[in-house]
Amino acid sequence: MGGPPPHQTFTGSQSNEVRLATLLADGATTIAAAESCTGGEVAHRITSVAGSSAYFLGSIVAYANSAKEHLLGVPASVIETRGAVSAECALAMAEGARRAFGAEVAVATTGIAGPGGATPRKPVGLVYIAVATPAGGEVEEHYVAGDRAAVVDAAAEAALSLLLRSVERRRDGT
């Protein structure tokens, strides 16, 4: 009963999920998510805001490569040639979530949260965030230092930030 819901810290500025709620409360734009390395944290943060059912359609947590392929339509060739942790996979995941839910905008996360799973070319903390819209897609690459929880938290924050910027651009017509 006391205080804001989890992840809604008000230290002079609103969290990205609250800013999304303010922007999307009219339900005119719908969003969805596809998550791998964040394991549902993006969806959790979005749905921690009352009224999110007006604009958030759902999320697919596709941790296994087979789930990325079967649930999100990520081509097997992308996973085989570029890897599940790649810009191409992140974008295909976002496009798949957009299709699966019929959302205007979808965000996706894929990365290596650690402590295992790293390679010399793909270290722990490497994360790709993608957004898909009717106008196309956008991908960001991030490197996050810290333990597994830090990587998940930072990746979720980056995903919400990219999602917010994308929705703001759609609303501004840019």
What do you see in this structure?
With 174 residues, the protein is α/β, with parallel strands linked by helices. It has one domain (16-172): Maf protein (Alpha-Beta Complex). 40% of the residues lie in helices and 20% in strands. The protein is built from six helices and five strands. It has helices spanning 16-24, 41-47, 65-72, 76-81, 87-101, 148-172, and strands at 31-35, 56-61, 105-111, 126-133, 136-143. It has a five-stranded mixed β-sheet, sandwiched between helices. The radius of gyration is 15 Å and the shape is globular.
Brief rundown of the structure:
This protein is an alpha/beta fold. It is built from six helices and five strands.
Overall strand count: 5
Side-by-side strand order of the widest sheet? 2-1-3-4-5
Q: Give, in order, the helices and strands.
A: HEHEHHHEEEH
CATH homologous group name: CinA-like
Number of helices: 6
Average pLDDT confidence is: 92
- Under the CATH scheme, which class? Alpha Beta
The largest sheet, given as strand count, sense and whether it forms a barrel, is: 5 strands, mixed
- Please tell me the total number of domains: 1
Low-confidence stretches: 1-12
Q: Considering DSSP H and I runs of 4 or more, what fraction of the residues is helical?
A: 40-55%
Shape: globular
Instruction: Round the Cα radius of gyration to an integer and report it.
Output: 15 Å
Q: Could you tell me the strand content as a percent range? A: 15-25%
The CATH architecture category equals Alpha-Beta Complex
How many angstroms separate the termini?
40 Å
